[in-house]
Amino acid sequence: MTLAASIATAPPTRPSALRATRGERAVCALLAAAFLLLLATAAWLRPDARGVGTHEALGLSPCGWIVGFGIPCPTCGMTTSFSLAVRGSLWASFRVQPMGCVLAVVTAASAVTCLFVAATGSRIGHVLGARLTPRVLVAGAALALVAWGYKVAAMRGAMPFGRCDLP
User: Fold this and answer.
1) Is 59 left (phi over 0), alpha (psi -120 to 50) or beta?
2) Quick check: is 89 in a domain?
3) Which of 9, 79, 117, 126 fits a disulfide with 54 by CB distance 3.0 to 4.6 angstroms?
4) Is residue 118 part of a domain?
5) Which residue in 64, 56, 105, 60 sits closest to 81, CA to CA?
6) pLDDT tens per residue across span 46-59
7) How many domains does the chain have?
8) How far apart are CA 98 and CA 147, in angstroms?
9) What is the domain extent for residue 149?
């Protein structure tokens, strides 16, 4: 069989959809609601000047790592960082917990993107999702480890940014 004959007999491929499906739009609407609820909660909380402990206003106990071992856990300062970021204090947010600042910005961008997909049926979610490669995930994990090391150093007084300036 020649190349031309094999091409002529190949089954036609279905073109990719130009719009998000109803299900994808519904999922994006739910995700947007979750992201916005998270950001609204961060806005409702008052950031703790210590750079940790903001989560205690939600009725949660103090960080067990700090209480038990004297060092912050990998997520220490995230709630405070989110709370500062939603107030527009990105530098203070970054100083408190660099990964928390990054995640707050990603959460806000994700909320906007999900709302856009839900409202318009845009396929941008697929385009952005395709960019979420293992390399990006490994880089995110590395950033989280560096941010944790920074937080440990800051709480031990080795960094000048251990506390946050409240807006």
Assistant:
1) left
2) yes
3) 79
4) yes
5) 105
6) 999 888 889 999 99
7) 1
8) 6
9) 21-155
The one-letter amino acid at 163:
R
Query: Mind listing the pLDDT tens digit for each residue in 115-140?
Result: 999 999 999 988 888 888 999 999 99
**Tally of residues, the chain:** 167
19 closest CA partner among 116, 133, 107: 116
Q: Is residue 14 part of a domain?
A: no
> What is the percentage of the chain residues whose pLDDT exceeds 70?
84
pTM listed for this prediction: 0.81
Burial class (CB in 10 A: 0-12, 13-18, 19+), 167: exposed
Q: Is residue 108 assigned to a domain?
A: yes
Number of helices (H) and strands (E) in the chain: give both, helices first.
Answer: 8, 0
